[in-house]
Structures are given as structure tokens and as C-alpha cells.
């Protein structure tokens, strides 16, 4: 039972933060979940959380920026569950700098994971979804892909690319009944947000991040930062049959921040 009863889902970056919350929510709504992460311990631990709660999950260690790993993670999922209905390309990293000072290394690293990795996540799922004429792909973008936020230049470029890629994929695979949507989260406190503040010089490594969270909340019309569950609720909706006529959509989940 549940809103994803009988479905098979794959979530990348599912070992932490928004991916973890979404994997848990998908499983609670009846989906069997491939819990993909670069960090094997994190993938194992979220898998255990799901199975302990009575759900079905498979831990998969993969780097989404590798074509070979992306191919293998889909193969392992199909070998275990026979089919795949939902792909949430969520894995991502922060990145620092502006156009005049970021490095080529930083640009390449962020683009490889946050842009190429989102493409590769669905590359090997698409033929299967097209053949079955069903599928929901959700790409994790960011409010940083919609508005100019200082200090995260390569990240901004990658997330803007994810938004454009989502629309192109939606148009291409709509006739195959494969839906492709993107989510643009605002600030949701996770290890990524804390690392980003330190890397941008907005916080020292020993700063009390809760104080910065409270300051940041003032910039959001709803006057609070998001929770991983706020994000998981939208991912769940887009994954489910309730969104059967929705594709090419760019969904802000940001407390109104990008409406400024
Ligand atoms: P997080 O750091 O808590 O979790 C990210 C997970 O992805 C980690 O478990 C990490 O091991 C994994 N990962 C990193 N590189 C990987 C790779 N190459 N292959 C596979 N897994 C990899 O971060 P989060 O805040 O949950 O972010 C998840 C996604 O949401 C990212 O794409 C991020 O850009 C996006 N996002 C987050 C926020 C926010 O405020 N937290 C806002 C907008 C967008």
C-alpha cells in the first residue's frame, strides 16, 4: 500500500540529506528503493533504516560522474527488482568561487558530478523506461540555477544546465510516456550547506551553523529554512501517478526565496 505501491525507485546521493529523506519517504509509500551513494557506509546505513522499518531496499555504491558506474547501478537495480519506475538524480556537491577566481579544477569537478552525473543517472534507465512506456525521472537542480547567488559559480552553471536538460529530456521522451521534472530546492540545512558556507568563506569551520541558519531564514518569505521532508514531499508527488500529466516542470521548493 501507499502512493508508490509496487514501484521500483532509484535515488542517487541517498546516503545523506535530501536523498536520504526521499529514499525513506519513497520506501514508506511502498516503493522498493535502490539506495545509491558514493559512500558505501552511507548507502548501507540508509538501506538498513528502510529494511528495519519493513521496507525493501538495495544498497548500491556508485559514482554518478562515471559512465561505467552509472551503467552498473542500473544493471544491479534491474537484477534485484526486475524493473525501474522512478529515478531521482539527486547526488550533488557544493562548489565555491566566482567567475574571476574559481579554478578549472573546481569547475570540472562540480560539472562532472552535478551536471554530467545527472545525465548519466538516467542514461541507462531510459531505454528500459521507453521499452515499458512508463517512467518518472526527477532531476535535482537548485534555486541557484534560477537566481544569481554569489560564491557558487560552478554550482550555478551546473544547476542551470540541469534545468535546461530536464526540459529537453521531457520534450524528447514525452511520446514514450517517460516524464522528466526538476526540483529547485532553497536552503535546507544538510552537510552540503554547511560545507558550502565554509568553502565560500561565509563561516569558519567552528562557526555555530544554527546561528547562520537563523540569519538565512530571514531572507525567505516563509521565514524558515526547509527540511529534508519538505523536499521529499515534492519528490514523492512527482514520482507518483498523481503527477501523470506533469512533465518538463521546474518545481521550486524554496519557501518563496526565488520569487524575490
Ligand atoms: P548531502 O551532502 O547531505 O548529500 C549528498 C550525498 O550525495 C552524499 O551522501 C554524498 O556521498 C553523495 N554523493 C556525492 N557525490 C556523489 C557521486 N559522485 N556519486 C554518488 N553519490 C555522491 O547534500 P544534500 O544537501 O542532501 O544535497 C542533495 C542534492 O540537493 C544536491 O544535488 C544538492 O545540490 C541539491 N540541493 C541541496 C540544497 C540544500 O540546501 N541542501 C539546495 C538546493 C539543491
From TrEMBL:
Key word Oxidoreductase present: yes
Q: Which lineage?
A: Bacteria, Bacillati, Actinomycetota, Actinomycetes, Mycobacteriales
Record-listed E.C. numbers: 1.1.1.47
Entry-linked InterPro entries = NAD(P)-bd_dom_sf, Sc_DH/Rdtase_CS, SDR_fam
* Sorted UniProt keywords: Oxidoreductase
Q: What is this protein called?
A: Glucose 1-dehydrogenase
CDD domains per the UniProt record, alphabetical: SDR_c
Annotated GO MF terms: glucose 1-dehydrogenase [NAD(P)+] activity
Q: Which family does it belong to?
A: Belongs to the short-chain dehydrogenases/reductases (SDR) family.
